[in-house]
Structure formats: C-alpha cells, structure tokens
Amino acid sequence: MRKKILMTFVLLAAGIFMSSQAFAAWTQAKGSAYNQLTLSYYKTTEKFTTLELDHEGTVTGRSGPIITNDTEEFTSTKINYYSEYGITDVLTVIFSVPYDWQKSNDVMKYTDVDGPSGVGDIKVGLRHKLVDNLVGTGVLMSAQVEVKIPEAYDHGDPVTELSLGDGQYDYEFALKFGRGLGKGYAWIDTRYVYRDYNHQHDPSYFKPSDKFKVGIGGGYAVASWLSIRGAVNWSKSIGNAVVNDDLIVDFYRAGKKSSHGDVVIIKEDLSLEGDSLSAGMDLAFDVSSLVPIFKETFPSKSIVLSYNRDIPGLGDFETKDSALGETWSITFVFPGKGIFPINLFAQN
Fold first, then answer.
1. Residue 47 has pLDDT above 70, yes or no
2. Engineered SS bond to 333: which of 49, 240, 242, 302, CB 3.0-4.6 Å?
3. Contact 93/84 with Cβ under 8 angstroms?
4. Residue 262 pLDDT
C-alpha cells in the first residue's frame, strides 16, 4: 500500500509537462488570445529518495544519500486547455483546466479500478508587464500571480486512495523576464509557491512545503516552419511541511511504525518536501507555413511535439524525495482575436 500512497502528490510536483508559454514573460495585446490544447502522457516507475530501505521496503534510516528506488508503475494521460487573453496591452488573464486519466498498478492490486479520472486542479492568474526595456538591456519584465483551485474533484483519503490533485489551494507569485534574440528568444521565470493546508479529511490535516521555483528556457526558428525550444525547471522545497497527530495515527493504523514519526509521511508517502529538476525539448511546427493551404482552413496555427524528463541533478539542484518520470505531449495552438473557441477559425 505504501507505494500506492506515494504517487498521490508526486505527480503534480515533478511529473507533468507544462508548455513553455506558461513561463513566458510576454503579455497578449488587448483583445488577443493564445489558446492551446495539449494531450500528454506521463509515466514513472522510479523515485529519488533520501530514506534508507531494506530489501523488504522497510525504512532503516531517514537521512541517507539520494538513491533511486523502484515503485509501482503510475501513468497519467491528460488533456489540458491553457488560455491567455489580453485585457489590456499590459495585463493578461491566464486560465488552465486539465482532464486526467490516472492508472496505478498498486491501485489495481487493492481495488477493481485502475485509478481516478476527471477534472484536476484548475489554475487562474494575471500577468502584468512592468517594463519593456529593463535598465537598457532589452529585457522585458512581468509580474504574475496564480491560484491553483482544487474544487473540481473529491480528494480521496491520503492514506488509502489516489486523487486527481493534492487537495489544497496553492498561491504562486512570479517575476518573469524575456528577451528577443533575432530569430530566437530567451526567458527566465522565478516564483514562490505558497501551499495552503489540506483540511479535506478533518481532524487529520497536512500542509505540503512551500516551494521556490526557477525556470530557464528559450527557442530558435531554424526554418520558417520549424522552431526548436528547450527549458530546464528547478523546484526547491522550503522544508516547512506539516502533518498533524491525527494523520500520523491514520498512517500507523495502515501499517506504519510509530518510531518513524512524521518523517516517512512527509518524505516518502506524500512527498510533501520533494525537490525536482527537469529538462524538456519542443519541436514547434508552423502549420500555415509548412502547408500554405492550411493558413486559412486549418484551425491550429502550430503543432508542438514535446518531451520532458526528471533528471538527477547535482548539489543543491538534485532531485530528491520525488518521482523520476517522463512526459510526451502534442499541443495544438490557436492564436487569434477573442476568447476560445470564438477565435478557433478566426483569420489573423
């Protein structure tokens, strides 16, 4: 059962690929929109952990070197809608909603279902352009606030069930930087994520650790119809996760040893203080340039193929107490005027 519980929170923290557009600093022009539909497939069968385990999976230590442990296979097939809309030239509203099909080998051992499916965590936010040319460097700077809303699904018992999200609100505060570079561009995204308490199963409750995140990426147009993009994203736990005594008792009843205290819950079962480092690459195809007839007839203006993987890292940038997963995705982009789906077939 332990391996099943582990995956409840690892997925959103370290595994799911996000489009580089979500990290970009630029705002949309007033009345303009950027919309995309992404189909992604995430898989993990391993985890980076600092807990020391014997051959039977029993915890023998809590502060060991980072090692890789096998876990039961977990997959997530997701359709995600992401949208940006320019309220003014300097203020953009952001919205995303996923529909997720999860599958866990561990779940299938104990139930007659693969795993949960449905709408996961919804995100809404605002991005405000602060300056076009930061101290004469040509760098654009924006600020962004974003809220993760866990109201679209029922959060299962963290001791025994998988869920479509981690069940509590998150609040993200970001400073974003971007600069055009001829046929290319580069961006940096820095953000702090405050993660609220989860009281879905009172009197038991917990709080995942807050996180500091940095993303660096860019892209280059190698042809009129093809761009190559890449990104590296680092997420560092602040180390302030909390679990209350009632939740600890629930875990003891599920077979944990009292001598392990709350450390096993935080680090292993719920991964509430995981660090992660991931790298990804995109191939973006401009459909209207590649096949001219599609310029006026094909609703998607570009198609993006992406691959993202969690990597070990070094020193302070190591992945630990988090999943080792990889994601493949295909994205259909719909830029234009008006809010999706009004602009689906709009001419630009």
1. yes
2. 302
3. yes
4. 65
DSSP secondary structure letter of residue 320: B
Q: What angle do CA 41, 44, 48 make, to 5 degrees?
A: 140
Distances (CA, A) of 64 to 53, 234, 337: 10, 22, 54
What whole-number distance in Å separates Cα of residue 15 and Cα of residue 42? Answer: 7
> Would the pLDDT of 122 be above 60?
yes
Distance CA(177)–CA(24), nearest Å, equals 8
Is pLDDT of 4 > 50?
no
Give me the helices (H) in 205-259, please.
245-253
With bands split at pLDDT 50, 70 and 90, how would you rate the model's confidence at 67? confident
Judge contact between 177 and 141, C-beta under 8 A. yes
Homologous superfamily in CATH for domain 2-337:
monomeric porin ompg (2.40.160.40)
Q: What phi, psi does 26 have (nearest 5°)?
A: -75, 145
pLDDT of residue 84: 93
State percent of the chain over pLDDT 70: 77
Which neighbouring-strand residues pair with 237? Answer: 211
Residues contacting residue 215 through CB under 8 Å, at least 6 positions apart? 23, 187, 188, 189, 190, 231, 232, 233, 234
Q: How many residues does the chain have?
A: 348
Q: What is the spatial distance between Cα 343 and Cα 348, in angstroms, rounded to a whole number?
A: 9
Q: Specify the higher pLDDT residue, 212 or 13.
A: 212
Only one residue has tokens 């952990």, namely 49
